[in-house]
Design goal:
With 84 residues, the chain is mainly α. The chain has helices at residues 15-25, 47-58, 69-82; strands spanning 6-8, 13-14. It is globular. The structure holds FE2/S2 (inorganic) cluster.
């Protein structure tokens, strides 16, 4: 996933926006990433990925997503269709 690819597909929040938020706002818990353009507050598909990014950042790493964007979007679509 490139920096301008969307991690939160519901609200079109890119990896770049999330990394900027992490560096500027220094959230104590991953759930605070919801303050970054509502990330994670739609279908909730991206919440585990937001948690992973926060964990990487807390560990002093530069947060990255290794997922291929089209596969990521496909899995999110499956997730949405499986919801009751
Ligand atoms: S993809 Fe982030 S809330 Fe739906």
């Amino acid at each position: 996933m490139d920096p301008d690819d969307h991690v939160c597909l519901c609200f079109r929040v890119s990896l770049r926006k999330l990394n900027t938020y992490l560096d500027c706002e220094r959230p104590r818990v991953a759930s605070q990433l919801s303050e970054c353009f509502g990330a994670g507050t739609g279908c909730h598909w991206c919440v585990p990925f937001l948690q992973k990014l926060h964990h990487q950042w807390e560990a002093g790493e530069s947060p990255v997503m290794t997922d291929e964007p089209s596969e990521y979007a496909r899995q999110r679509e499956e997730y949405r269709q499986a919801k009751p």
